[in-house]
Amino acid sequence: MSPQTDQENSSQINNVGNNGRSKTSHQGSVRADGSSIEDSHSSGSSSSNAGVKYVNLDEEDQMEIQGYRRSIIWTAVTWFFIVITVGILRMVYHWFPEWFLNCTHTKCSLEVADKVLLVEICQEKYRKIHIRTILRQTALQALTSCYQEELSANNRKHTEDYVLEEFNKSSEVLSLPIPNPDGTFHEVDRISMFTCKKLRYVWNEKSKVFFKLKSLGPGIPTSSLHCPDAQQGLAGLSDMQQQKRRAVYGRNTIHVPVRSILSLLLLEVLNPFYIFQVVSIMIWIVIWYYFYAAAIAVMSITGIVITITQTRKNQRKLRNTVRGNDIITVCRGKGVYDSIATEELVPGDVIVIPTAGCVMHCDAVLLFGTCIVNESMLTGESVPVTKTPLPMRNDIFYNSREHARHTLFSGTKVVQTRFYDDEKVMAVVTSTGFLTAKGSLVSSIMYPPPADFKFERDSYKFIGFLAFLASIGFTYSLVEKIKNGDTGLQVIMHTFDLITVCVPPALPAAMAAGIILAQRRLELRNIFCISPRAINVSGSINCVCFDKTGTLTEDGLDLFGVVPVAKIKNVPRVLPPITKPSTLPQATSALLEHTESEDPKMELPYLLLTGMATCHSLTIIDGTLNGDPLDLKMFESTDWNLIEPSSEDTNKYDNLCPTVVTWTPEETETYSKVEVGIVRQFPFSSALQRMAVLCKEIGKDQMHFFCKGSPEMIQSLSMPETIPENYHELLASYTKQGFRVIAFAHRLVESQSIHKLQKVQREDLEHELTFLGLVVLENRLKPDTADVLCELSSAAVRTIMVTGDNLLTAISVARDCEMVGSKDEIVIVNFDETTLSDNKPCLTYTLAEKVSRQIFDDKVVPPLRSNVSEEVVLDVDAGTHLGRYHFAITGKGWSIIQEHYSDLIPQIVVKGTIFARMSPDQKQQLVQELQKMGYFVGMCGDGANDCGALKAAHAGIALTDSEASVASPFTSKEPSISCVPELIRQGRCALVTSFGIFSYMAIYALIQFFSVMILFEVGTNLSDFQFLYVDFFIICSLSAVFGQTQPYPGKLFKRPPMTSLLSPPPVGSLIIQAAFILLIQLTSLFVTQQQDWFVPYMNITGGELGTELGEYACSENYAVVGVSFSQYIFLALAYSKGKPYREMFLKNYWFTGALAVWTGFSLYLLINPNEYFQELVELEMPPLYFRFVIIGFSILQVILCLLIEAFLVDRGLISMMNSSWWLKMRPRKEMYLEVEDKLSGSHWPLVSNYGGEPPSEEGGLNQFSAFRAKS
Q: DSSP string spanning 889-926?
């Protein structure tokens, strides 16, 4: 049985990857350049270091890979030691699975391996391992496994015979199709694969590597995805071919496992913290601390139950959000259509999109027809998007991002479909399961990268320090007991108790409480979070990137006017601006006196009106016109009507146009009713900066092609002789004032059949266009934009604009919203491709003109030019903004710098404030470059074109109506950037709360450690109920309400809180506080021992230790415990910081109440408790006067701890960190500070004065003056 391709076996197969190609075999096919197709897979697993193999080489998910084979001998030896250690060794292996793999397996080649070890290096810091078992199957076994999911239980024992019988019936070859990089498939008899992070990796026998199964389409010509015969039902995969591909790709499901309660329980119980708790509880039981052990056990069990419940809730919520199944019609070839479950779809299936729409369960490329799609689940953008067929080109390679307007993504909802006559709207499946865009987002939620946050890293180090301190105390105490001959079980167990004291049992719950409370506060302000760990990180944000349109400016656009162009005596002239586009026909009629044209409908102003009425992607949904706000505003200004004919009405419109726009002139006008059908749309692309339509006036043979987009792009597509002489000056006069300008162009097209029109490419039409004019829209700033940016600036939070709009428009908006100060200079970074240096375009640096927009009586005052001298020297005086400068750059300039001047990226990133004409990928690149420079980056956008940047940022905030979107960690239902300072405010509050709780829990552990060590020296310890009162009542209650304090409501402080627990203030605070705590406890004990009535505990017990007797009441215990009560209570107050990040503690009524209750009850216990409480807590009451002496020590402790925090820490250590000598000794490590320091003393860049023309993307500017900048 020789392996053959799918194409060889059936003439009905979808030609995806096979169109125009010869059949391939499992031995590998040959490319045009002579290289083997299979060999190209080796690049995914090549070695960049000698002896190290990789999968996904040079991709974001690159991983090292090593093969392992089981060793029977080493497995037996390992399990022997597991048995004799009563499973303890296996538990250790659970924490360190790589150790278990190395102990039971030996390294080997991947070809013979049973398992693979995958090592993922995250953020160049964190090492994450994955151990996966390799599944090796014959084609028959793989297909049998696939069938077992579909056959009934009675037939499962006969499935192999069943599979063979089915293949014999269909004359299919019993083999498996493995995809090649060029879209073809080669057949194999057996398959080896493993799954990692829900993605399959398949063995390539030719290159001896594993490669990741990828979507069908990326990197191959768009023509290869087309199926010309699909409308006739002559394309698609047969049932057998679909089964074979499903055996390779798996079922089309995004499976989010919901673990059983038992498995979650085991995972939680095996957590090192809970193992420590179990051991601690056993020790406490042995030393007769029954009540305390029971209380901690209840607390731990409660924590486990809450964690398991929340985990299952989150897993179920995610599963219910992403899972779904439906029935879809697929084309089987030979005119056969079949209805199947969407779970059975595979890449290459040709599907029919229902007329009434559907929810997509796969990624598919649209081949025929038009779809209106709601993508809010993926992007957060609720505006419906129009999807059009993929162009059929051999020279254009498919990319899901670049061709997003031709791709139906999984999880999105097709609202409507439109096509001609009864023809079907069809698409070809490119991705299924976790290969889809939705699957990728879900995978990123299920397998998040490690949080790169210093606070979290330092917290583990600090816990390690406490454990080290505990081990010192344990060793010292154990040695002393042995020296004294105290070797009883109770003594030894009490010594072990020292270790349990140093790791607070309530620490995890206390740390989580602050984050949970912050999340709730955010929700009350309509800010929703799907990644709670990002809340603390948001408190460190010192740089925020903003999209412009819909973020800084209003969603809605006001049409300021149109600037038509007319040919007067065959010379293109700009006509006066017209505020009402609907009056353009009258302007056209007036022109007829000066032109030779007899048809007013062919005059340029009239064509501009027609273009405004047709060149859009608007659609009617539930009787309401929907679409992009810009398109809506433009269309409404024309006074035309939009009609979407039903199937009964299509005869009226020649069965050609799914959308028709009509215009009925007034009776006084010379025009008759106009009906124009939109034949085909070429949707807007941010990469192309334009959209286009092909339309036809009903009853006329001539067809029109309209194109609209950025003025720069439309100019480049238009014939030069149609561009007015004063075009650049005109464009600059509007863009400098912040107006959004759209240009229109037109050309006539010969009438063709509908099928030919569907195949025509936009590149064949987008040339030799006639320039029609400009549409000027006013995109007003949101009312609070300037105030919010001012608040961020005053808080030393850097703000950056990253937009797809025109550079000069962006510059104007940046000045209007005060992102750039009135006295600041803007340096436009441009390039000159005509002047090459080392085959690289030369960069130029030009001062932008200062322009202010002033509107009076609906008229725009001409732009005000600033008088900038040619010799420009910018300087910065201390405390002023004079001379500060900002870089402004376009996306094209950014690309050139990345490609040719990568060494300048740090300077551009650090000084860049305005990034215009940026594509979605470039926005993400900018965020990542800012992070490399050491910034904590926030990103705020509408979620549409900003998804990549929102996900990449430390804290991405999408302005959307939905409560949660996978597009961003945070979503704000309020369409205002006021959510940014609010998020930072809440994040700072949460971060300071986390610092406070951690410091409090650490000092609480030290207080208890000192108390126990001191009492051990005198032969006693804390009693069961003393431990219970402190840990369960005082500590748990105070830590639970500690985070209830609200953020400080005033302006954001100019400095974010610290992110390191190991910096001088927190470390110094703990050291100083611990020293005074120990001093007060020792002083209290010493003073007690000097009293006349004092009798040492060991004298009372006849030399026996209290740890052996279980009796702890004594004067020493009272003295130490008495002062420690105040230490436990009031250090919580000391660490409950207020202004500038949190409100005063008195406004936290729960916290204040807890302080009052436990202070009062502690005083009651220390002064005059009743007999019951005295016996319960085991207190030996001293004379009355001495009780007040202990209270005096307590008051002294309170005063000292508060003064230490207020003066020595907050004013002393923090001021020290900001001092020049400290910064010289310990300079900050952020790279952006180093770049700023270098720029402050440099003569870079050379700058030229701005002469009033917009920066040309082709022409260069002379550099003539030195530009010295200090910042």
A: EEHHHHHHHHHH-GGGHHHHHHHEEEEES--HHHHHHH
* In the block, residue with structure tokens 């007899």: 598
Between CA 153 and CA 177 the distance in angstroms is 27
1170's tokens: 């009743």
Catalytic residue among 547, 628, 631, 832: 547
The answer to whether residues 233 and 335 touch, using CB atoms and an 8 Å cutoff, is yes
DSSP 953-1016: SSEEEEE-SSS--TT-SEEESSSSTTHHHHHHHHHHHHHHHHHHHHHHHHHHHHHHHHHHHHHH
Q: Is the peptide bond before 1245 cis (omega within 30 degrees of 0)?
A: yes
417, β-bridge pairs: 371
**Which has more pLDDT, 791 or 294?**
791
CA 224, 709, 414, 379 torsion-angle sign = positive
pLDDT in tens, 492-533: 676 777 777 777 767 777 777 778 888 889 989 888 887 777
Select from 1183, 1162, 931, 1120 the least CA-distant residue to 1029.
1162
Structure-block tokens of residue 313:
């809730």
User: How many other C-beta atoms are found inside a 10 Å radius of the C-beta of residue 768?
Assistant: 11
Catalytic status, residue 326: no
Do residues 1039 and 1136 lie in contact, with contact meaning Cβ atoms separated by under 8 Å?
A: no
Report which secondary-structure segment, H or E, holds 81: helix 72-84
Give a three-class secondary structure readout of 829-850. Answer: EEEEEEEEECCEEEEEEEECCC
Collapse the DSSP code of 1097 into the 3-class scheme (helix H, G, I; strand E, B; otherwise coil) and give the result: helix
The sheet with strand 190-196 has its strands ordered as 135-138, 190-196, 199-204, 209-212
Of the pLDDT bands very low, low, confident and very high (cuts 50, 70, 90), residue 285 is confident
Nearest to 512 by CA among 267, 310, 257, 276: 310
Nearest residue to 178 via CA among 166, 164, 190, 165? 190
CA dihedral 905, 909, 914, 919 (to 10 degrees): 60
Q: What is the chain's Cα-based Rg? A: 37
**Burial track 1142-1179 (b if 16+ CB lie within 10 A, e otherwise):** bbebeebeebbebbeebbebbeebbeebeeeeeebbbb
Q: Is the pLDDT of residue 601 over 80?
A: no
Query: Strands, DSSP E only, in 1093-1245?
Result: none
Nearest in space to 584 (alpha carbons), one of 611, 616, 617, 557: 611
H or E stretch covering 197 = none
The single-letter DSSP state of residue 416 is E
> What 3-state class would DSSP assign to 643?
strand
Q: To which H or E segment does residue 503 belong? A: none
Amino acid (one-letter) located at 15: N
